[in-house]
Fold each of these.
Amino acid sequence: MSVVLLERRGPVAIVTINRPKALNALSPEVMVRLGEVIAEVEADRSLRVMILTGAGGKAFVAGADIAEMRGFDILAAERFAEEGQRVLSRMEGLSIPTIAAVSGFALGGGCELAMACDIVLAGPRARFGQPEVKLGVIPGFGGTQRLVRRVGQARALDLVLTGRMVGADEAVSMGIASRKVGEDVLAEALAVADEIRSAGGVAVSFAKRAVQDHADGDLKAGLAAERHLFALCFASEEQAEGMSAFLEKRPAAFAGAPDQG
Ligand code: CAA
């Protein structure tokens, strides 16, 4: 059985980190396979949403694999972090929305993996944290960078410097998780995926691009990009259908919406 599984449920890709005995720890093998799976998702134009989850229910991902990292020298560590950052950035850059379905531990590289997803759903037993300093290292897959952008410097430093874990409620209040959901986090993620699919696919990908490409940039450049993408929507059939459907008081029939398979 592969260490990363890709299942297609119609236009929804479910990517599962599959090392439950090691709490889905990210070994170099997992990162290579995850990179391949992300490339497959990227190439498959029939996909509309990607869900990322962990096997076994106890953990989303409990971090990079400590047993594998223990023997790293400087060069091996640099390569591992480089590969991890490359894979996470590629996933973050997918044109389709990504949802992290977090049940149990999302620690270190696992928290970083979730932070590279667009929407993070936290089950009641979710535990997030960046415990790297307790191992004598610092986060290497973006934990000192994406976390700050998501939750602000004060909250990110609180987590990164103490290594403490936070539960679902605190994760939502900090902005690490988008929402707290019920025990069956995958079912909740599939429901969110359906909600996204019932909207216009082009609009969804433009909205993601507008937010993501300019999250770090200045407001002026971001507003310019937003208005260009807004205008571009008017070249799509989706805009005609979406607005006509509203005015005709009927549901919009967008390609790939759940009721149309
Ligand atoms: N790497 C390798 N193996 C891991 C692991 C990890 N990150 N996390 C858990 N495991 C393994 C354990 O070694 C154990 O294996 P054995 O059964 O063979 O002994 C198995 O998974 C179950 O774990 P525990 O027995 O420890 O389970 P627990 O319920 O007592 O504790 C836990 C759960 C609190 C998550 C604990 O496992 C833990 O603290 N894990 C490490 C978390 C961590 O420090 N993550 C950061 C890694 S560094 C990093 O990620 C760097 C980066 O940014 C890239």
Note: The chain has a mean pLDDT of 96.
Amino acid sequence: MSHHHDDPICNDSSNEHFQNVLDRALVSPARRNVLRGSVGLSAAAALPMLQACGGDSDPTSSVPVETKGLSFSPVGKSLADQVVVPAGYTVRVVHATGDALDSSLAAYSGSGNESDDWARRVGDHHDGMDLFFIDASGKYSNADTGRALLAVNHESSADAHFFHPTGQTSGGVTAKKFDQFGSWDLKARPADGLEVRKEINHHGVSIVELSKSGSTWSYKKDSAYNRRITPNTVVNITGPAAHLANIKSLMVTAFDTSGATARGTLNNCGHGKTPWGTYLACEENWAVYFQMPVGSTAPDAKTVASRARYGVARAALSPTATSGVSQGWHTVSGSDQYSRWNVAVTGASSAADFRNEPNTFGYNLEIDPATPNSVPAKRVAMGRFAHEAAVYGVPVVGQPLAFYMGCDSRNEYIYKFVSTAVWSTADIGGGMAAGDKYLNEGKLYAAKFNADGTGTWLLLDISVPAIANFATYAFANQADVLVNTRLAADAVGATKMDRPEWGAVNASTGEIYFALTNNSAANRTPVTADGANPRSYNDPDGRRGSGNPNGHIIRFREQGSIPANAAAMAFNWDIFLFGAEDTSVADVNLSGLTASNAFSSPDGLYYSPASGIMWIQTDDGAFTDQTNCMLLAAVPGTVGDGKAITVNNSLNGATGKTGTFIGAALGDAKLRRFLVAPKGAEVTGLAETPDGKAMFVCIQHPGENTPALGSASSFAFESQWPGTAPGTQKYGPVGRPRSATLVITRDDGGMIGV
Ligand code: FEO
Ligand code: CA
Ligand code: CA
């Protein structure tokens, strides 16, 4: 099955797991009253402030939207190798993996025969995405100018076997497929480096110019805006002025012995768009790219402890080891674009090798798409972890900005960054300088979810005694706190969550939603369910064992007057939805899902300011026997508006607990399946035009379960989408499956979904 839902666990701290908290919430009679009593503060109080703070080009000016009601007929479950949408909608591919940015390059072959290094092609594994409009002079605009730049994250290398004629080669043996979360052999990759260069360069971010023709959009080859940010692109290291020197000292490598710059970005999953119009490429599973050759020298114990918490070369390789995580990029000689992935001690100091290279990943990388020659910046002040999207709270003039961020691994945390600078609409279009203003100075917090339906933000600062005196890891200074954020969050007792994926902010209410995609049997045993969890159950067909195979979506509302509450230290929370198979028993299918809206493993989230829809994208392996991954439209309410749901936890033969909590059961009218993806794919990025009439959706890794070629003479493709797709979605040669960005329009020209 897909390895995208098997992220490694590196949190060995004793911090309380969210499920323990939720369980106590279930049995807390006070909780309902807490939630109910404060609901009235939400949207109404926000309206005047929202409307007071900007003109038409101001992202804060969006008038709160009441979702009109979903207007489409839900699509059924689908196992077809195509994108399925409701009647009356049209799907087209905007671009797909391997498309050339310049007409000087050969067209994508579909057979792995490209002879270039992919640094001027659209990357692979389309993920987070956003649109940036530019006016006739090329300046960023919040309004739809008919001319847009499309920025897309290219996440992973799990399907790199498709980029070579017969698969990946290692130790002279070809026809292999790297397993991102499994072990791979430690043998040398081909000496000429071309395989590895292709694999390196299909990572990162692509930016292409789009033009509008009629109702649809297409990408322009040879635009001066077309740009790739790859793992080789030089970027600036930035952070709080008072700590920047110490931050740079942690970034010293043979590439830049001052630590002022680093190279590139990796495994960009979810994303963020800033209120001033730049792009945040969030670095998620960057840890799996590094390795130390067998018999090499590890750095000092503190560095090793830091690496262990992030999953970098976790286990010291024994002299007889034959496998480890990483796909062996470091085995190619002749250039430090390869040797940089070897994180062993090979030189006299950190300035002479790449032992610090992992410290240069794990951040939000800010990019200004409208300024092609701008240097991207790692925003170290926002912390270092497996960044999975960064979404801002409703911006209010004169108030700090808040960015909400998940760390996607089992038992990891949700974070908030609050800027020191207060928001000014004069910064819209301000590019990297605006980023310097808002994203270098601020406070970083981790979330603690209390049993009574409240939560608190825990400051991550060296001045906090629990951090300064943390026994597990001796923080040297605030730079060390920012670079080892996970350990700092352990120290203050943040709440372990079930793999926080994307967040989304309901711009009408300021409430924040987070997808908690799933959890495994190892973390949610029947014994644990007996004590602490609202749902610990067997996947009905056993595909995903037990635990929380279907995931859920949490939402919270900052306390204080909304929306001027970016710096609030506390919040109220509830559960928006529980994923489930529609045929599951009621104790599992707590949100009352039906065949029209059953889903599993929520991953992406996007709130549409135009329609008021909360869009939910899935990346699943539990329900995929019945349906491919999907996109659903939900009508969001407000925290606390759900009904009381009683849970009987007497599952799996364990002694259960019974409790009551507030959660939504939206019903078919308020939650509908809008799109189903091709075979093996997950649904990732989502963006739309301001009028809500063109929606862009990314499809990642169709055919992901295609096995390595091995000794076979041809691939046993799980999918060959989009080359084999029907109708308007057919795109490119019939060959290997490709990730892609879609544009979806409504045939009558109306708004999507409502
Ligand atoms: Fe890249 Fe958390 O999924
Ligand atoms: Ca994801
Ligand atoms: Ca199942």
Note: The radius of gyration is 24 Å.
Amino acid sequence: MDDLTDLIKQLTLEEKVSLLGGQDFWSLPAIPRIGLRSLIMSDGPIGVRGTGWAPEDPSIALPSPTALAATWDPALARTAGRLLGQESRRKGVHVLLGPTVNLQRTPLGGRHFECYSEDPLLSGEIGAGFVEGVQEHGVGTTVKHLVGNDFETDRMTVDVRIGERALREVYLAPFERVVAAGGWGLMSAYNGVNGLPMASNGPLQSDVLKDEWGFDGVVVSDWRAARETVGAALGGLDIAMPAMENPWGPKLVAAVRSGEVAEELIDDKVRRVLRLAARVGVLDGVPPAVRTPPADLDGDAVAHEVAARSFVLARNEHFALPLEPAGLTRVAVIGALATDARVLGGGSAQVTPPHVISPLEGLTRALPGIDVAHAVGADPRPFLPALPQETSVTLLGADHAFTVPVAAVRWIGDLPGGIAPEAVTGLELRTTFTPGEDGEHVFAVSGFGTFELIVGGETIYSGTLHPPGTGRADLLLSPKEQRAGVTLAAGVPVEVTLRQSIQPGMAHTVSATLGHQAPGVSAEGLLAEAVELARESDVAIVVVGTTEQVESEGFDRASLELPGDQDELVVRVAAANPRTIVVVNAGSPVLLPWVEDVAAVLLTWFPGQEAGAALADVLLGVAEPGGRLPTTWPRREQDCPVLQVTPRDGVVEYDEGVFIGYRAWDRAGTPPLYAFGHGLGYTTWRYETLEVSPAEAVVSLTNTGARVGREVVQMYAGPAGVTPEGIGATGVSPERPARWLAGFAPVEAHPGETVTVRIPLPERTWQVWDGGWRTIPGAYAVTAAHALDDPRLTASLEL
Ligand code: BGC
């Protein structure tokens, strides 16, 4: 008998079932009698939030997952994972809820920024690297969300209809890769697939994942995704999270007693939970997977490196970049996001970073002695930013106070100071504000709950932001705002207090921001100011991007346009200064209607806490922009092959089958603005030789430029004789894409140096799913490319 069987035998049915559900938001119960401590989970995937969201307990914020994938470097993904394993240990977290390997089927998907790419191979390799890195610390992961959670609209109830072939070749492939890499956990999705909610989806969770792939880890539900007692128990789910609205507990005990669910099935789930507990070191007597964790990494340095390596230089006319500081006297840095960069995406992936380096700060630090000036130009933020000054926070009723660097607080789960939620009757944010200018200052309350805002002794707002009874998810994902103006005199300090009343026991979910706007100029005035600054400067760096109300978990995007007046801002600045460099701070594709009128475009995703420092390095050439697009960037929204994110009668049909991303752009024959794999560097490359066998490509290439450089060698395979223009006309495998990514490898070389790289080509390159994996014989073209639309060498292969 093994150790786990022995332990399972010691447990009552009630104890066993208790291990299959959360005891609160983030943890499983302990059973000290068998040496089991509580197992703690936390989001994921760009940082480790911990069991609260407590401002006093910050977390390193890495760039968004799409950015990580834009590095095309599984080894760097592993380093990122290792850092988050280290962060998990520091925060007492045993399982990190990530990575997200759903695919970028459409740029309208609200969590596009949280997914790696539109390609299953790239997503799988980055996901596997990340998971291996986290688990090196003996910390578990849950690759998520199995499967078809590629958009947000009605995500709790929608049924996604995906054909078997598309499931296997496209949507399941990254999960399969992570499971093969040894992932210890998986999260099932909110949505249904082919008629069954994923939390109860036996065909996918029991048959494919556990039986066919041999997954020995745990399947955790998404939060409140498990809604059936028996269905979920029979459908392959192991842990239902969180405690709230949990369909298991006593109901599952009763279902076992009545014979609807076999106790052996419960034992299998408990065995998986105990195996995970042992692996992460919370089960005494069974050795953990890792006894000696790897040496600590410098979190800021990793965040910086991933950011710089992820930036995609999409356009660089006449070598506008890198900038030569010696030739600069005045640099204009323009945009609201230049001082308030959007460094992470909205929803459960949010953490509170220890600091954020804005683009303006990064550039100012990197250009000592040069006049670096800022103008807002256009402000797309629909909510006022938090008053940027130290604020004291008091938990009313609990006698606990702390300070935060800006006037905002937010947590879900544990309360600051470990205070019990029942003790708290309210919250108070208090600060002394000294106006810089005379006039009407606008203050705002945003978040959720019932608030009172008092400025200089006068109550300027009192009310409830959401109607009573609004669900927690809506509260978190669609915050509201109320504003009120008050006339203040420059230099005369006023007390500002934001007081929130909290229902007993509800203090585990809190979000409150005290926003502020100084007396301002009109939108037209802001534009004019920016144009003036650009005209007087040697170079204009315009930072544009999306906001939390445009791109976030919880809803899909309605449009790919940049919000507010940002397009107009770029057009006017570019007309005033030919050296206009646009930095796009968006997690997913946005339209760039002015692209041909600007000198350079750098895509920086959601760049994490080191945003501005990495940006300065790349703009000044200290680092090369190493990123390549992990997703096709459209010229016009209507060109996107898939735009459907709204269910019809509760259903979204993935009619396009395996044709998503570049596979679909190829088939349609429409050129995108920037192709999959696109990204310029600061040096040039000559591809010398290519040799291919079914298992490997060997590529030699020379750095023909004047500086050390980095190239991502991309291998594409497809039926020979099929060109993107001729697809469908040739009659060759009409159901197969023209080409697909077969492998890739980043390389580095000095000027003049030739490097040779061996790139493994997985067996799946040559296979289709046809009730089983079938190798398709015939002639293939195998291409080594700089990007999908920049092939360099092609070889033929007969299979
Ligand atoms: C998200 C998951 C997340 C979970 C816990 C859900 O709303 O879909 O990705 O891990 O919440 O925060």
Note: Residues 3-280 form a domain with the TIM Barrel fold (CATH 3.20.20.300).
Amino acid sequence: MIASRPALVSFPDALHAVLEAVPQAAVVEVALRAARDRVLAQPAFASDDIVPFARAAMDGFAVYSSDGHGPLTVAAPAFAGSGDAAHARGTATPIATGAALPDGADAVVCDEDSVVNGSVVSFVVSPGAGDHIFPTGEDARSGDLLLAPCRVLSAGDLALLAAAGFVRVSVFRRPRVAVLCTGDELVDIATAPGRGQVRDSNGVMLSAAAEECGAEVVCEQVVADDLASIEDALRAAFSTCDVILTTGGASRGPRDLVKEACERIGVRFAFTGVAMKPARPTAFGVLGNKGVFVLPGNPAAAFVAWHALARPYVTAAAMRKPVRGRRGTLAAAVRGKTGRCVFVLCELRTATPGSLVAVPLQNQCSSLVRNASRARALIAVPLGTKELPAGAPVDIEVLDGSDA
Ligand code: AMP
Ligand code: MG
């Protein structure tokens, strides 16, 4: 047991210390097909016009617009995929959508406006220059910036990069995360718990949450409340991972050994407790440029500590944008607590379109895993605030990033 640890730090100081410790993300190359949901590390420029030739936008006839209604002699057809074709004045070249416009032609008349009579065609419209043509470089010109760094790549982005010829792309390496759930009472979710045992629900919660913000979870493990076992698990995790999330054993009881195990393997703590409720025993430390979060075991407390402190770190390590608080109002009064910043788990309602209302969960007890499922948002009652009344304007952190 460690006899004395520094006093609690304020929540803002804790968050500041956490964010200061975020290491610079490395850059890796991945195949384009594997780049969805990855964060682009370098600007992507077009090395050519996209597409580098003018194309027919409709099935029809390529013409000189100055040849007017016709009748024109039907020439050999131009299909998509065929290369340069020449086009003679006084003729109409049958053309398929996407085919390169034959040299000289400056308009396409669509089939619907064409009347074919044997080897000649006339038109019911007067073609204008540029009609039904996709011009050269319509999507992008050579040298254009296609995508800026730090963009989280979508399926549509991959399409654009494919069109520009990117076979591989440079993305930020995902932070590798280990989740270690400590507790002699924990059993695997596939095991029926005996008396005194509970299923490990924090493991899957934190792994899924870490993946949601761009991490790669490489290890999720239950560890006994035993100093040597915790030390071994921490050492193994530090050897392969960038971030370690532990739960349980974070307080000061005789079986609360995680902080001691961390110190024994050389972790330097930035703080070992935070003036917050719930999750006061939350600690954060570093070993080299790797971070470890010691989170409480109670599921709703671990959930709050994840969102309030660990998630901002993992999100920044993944080079993703932080979740922005949204302004809204509070549906019911919530009380503060002397000396602490109180986090309140809430459901969400939209009163009128665009206006968000946070509805505090009735029972904020940190042992309730159900609260982690119910909560869609988190609000904070800052240190020194006795109460936020019903209707008060508040900053709402929407947990799943959606609108409501
Ligand atoms: P501790 O922080 O170790 O004192 O644990 C506090 C409470 O959280 C206890 O009731 C534990 O059984 C429970 N708990 C700890 N770890 C987990 C976990 N991984 N999944 C679900 N409940 C847990
Ligand atoms: Mg315990």
Note: Residues 39-49+140-172 form one domain.
